[in-house]
Amino acid sequence: MGSGASKAPAEKPKPPEPAQPAAETPQLDIRLPYPHFRELFTMKNFWKTVRRNEKDCGKVMLAKYLNDFPENKDLYPKLKNVKAATVDMNCSDPGFEAVAAQYLKVFDDVITAVEEKPGDVQTACDRLVAVGKMHRQKVSGMNVSMFQNMEEPFILMVKHVLQDRFNEKAEMLYRKFFQFCLKYLLEGFNG
Asked: Does the keyword Heme apply (predicted)?
């Protein structure tokens, strides 16, 4: 005897779920010096090493700047106890450490703003313009070349922290970044 029970129709196999689309490469603000996101991505990854060593990095950069331009020490009241021509990253003078941290923070703030919105870097530009204006208003005797003079100390700092990872590509990425910063610092200073 048959059970008379009908068999439930077999379920159709579900079609495979569509693959998740690959994350789109973010569009970059045309003000950035990088034509491809990959360059910005690489520069940001290198910067993580700077962040992990920020105290030493700031001191390396400021020491190099003062060694190269000891005459500029007088523009910094906090550096009154520092011998500009011979200061090095081992200096523990509180004024030196404070200025070094402030200078590095400007670059870090800009990179953070660019990381947050690579398609609209207005926040980064505004920060740089504000720093330029502040120097114009508060640092008597300052001239535009003093901003440009920070490029080599900045590159030396990156080279120091990256060590064997510093190569032509890293140098090019950071020179482009510095020139981006310089453009907006000068806009604020000359404004």
From this structure: yes
